[in-house]
Write a sequence for this structure.
C-alpha cells in the first residue's frame, strides 16, 4: 500500500512499535508523528511525559512532530475541534493515511473511523487483534525498552509506576491486567528499541498521585560535569 503515513505518537511502547512495524514495509512512507499534549503542564496527555523527552524521541526517529496542545481540563468539543485542525494540516502536507496502534477496543476504533470519515486521512489498524500477551513479549524480545509513567491504581498497584516494561514486569502483572495496558491500566515511555538508533537516557524522579492516577516523572539524564 502506497501513501504517506502519520503515526499517532503517545511516547509509549505501542506507538513506538507501530513505527517500527510500518518501517519494515518499504511501500509505506512514514512522514510524521501526531501527539496531543497538556498545554498547561508541558507534558504528553495521559502519559505525563515531559515535552523535552517527546522532542528527543522525534529527533531520534528523524520525523517531524505535529503537536496538538490541549487545555486542561479539555472538553470533548474542544478536543475534536483541535484534532480536526491537525488533520486538515496533515492532509495539506500530503498525508494520506494514519496508522493507529489500537489492539481490540471496538468503541475506540469506531470513534476514530467515524471522526476521520471524509477527512482525507484513511485510518489503518495494523496491530488489530494481535494477541496482547504475544505482542508484549515480541516487543520486549526485539529490544524495546520502556518505563511505566502512569498507572491507574484502581486496576494496578501504584508500586508499578516507574518500573521497567520487561519480562519481569509481564510475569508480575495480575491476570486481569492486559499485558499491553490496552484498557488503560498503565501507560509508558519508550526509550530504546529497534525504532531508535540509540537509547534515550532518562532518570526516574518523583512518583506522585493526582487526578486519580499515579505518575512517575522521567527527565533527560544530565551529564555529570567534568572535574
Amino acid at each position: 500500500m502506497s501513501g504517506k503515513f502519520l503515526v499517532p505518537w503517545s511516547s509509549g511502547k505501542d506507538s513506538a512499535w507501530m513505527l517500527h512495524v510500518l518501517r519494515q514495509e518499504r511501500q509505506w512512507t512514514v512522514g510524521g508523528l501526531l501527539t496531543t499534549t497538556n498545554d498547561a503542564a508541558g507534558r504528553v496527555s495521559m502519559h505525563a511525559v515531559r515535552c523535552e523527552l517527546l522532542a528527543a524521541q522525534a529527533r531520534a526517529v528523524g520525523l517531524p512532530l505535529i503537536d496538538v496542545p490541549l487545555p486542561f481540563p479539555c472538553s470533548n468539543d474542544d478536543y475534536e475541534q483541535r484534532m480536526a485542525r491537525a488533520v486538515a494540516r496533515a492532509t495539506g502536507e500530503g498525508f494520506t493515511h494514519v496508522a493507529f496502534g489500537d489492539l481490540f477496543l471496538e468503541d475506540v476504533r469506531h470513534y476514530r473511523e467515524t471522526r476521520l470519515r471524509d477527512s482525507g486521512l484513511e485510518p489503518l489498524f495494523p496491530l488489530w487483534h494481535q494477541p496482547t500477551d504475544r505482542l508484549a513479549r515480541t516487543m520486549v524480545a526485539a529490544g524495546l525498552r520502556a518505563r511505566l509513567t502512569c498507572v491507574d491504581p484502581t486496576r494496578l498497584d501504584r508500586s508499578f509506576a516507574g518500573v521497567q516494561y520487561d519480562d519481569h514486569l509481564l510475569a508480575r502483572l495480575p491476570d486481569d491486567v492486559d499485558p499491553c495496558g490496552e484498557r488503560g491500566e498503565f501507560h509508558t515511555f519508550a526509550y530504546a528499541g529497534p525504532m531508535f538508533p540509540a537509547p534515550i537516557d532518562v532518570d526516574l524522579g518523583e512518583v506522585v498521585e493526582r487526578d486519580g492516577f499515579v505518575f512517575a516523572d522521567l527527565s533527560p539524564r544530565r551529564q555529570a560535569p567534568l572535574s
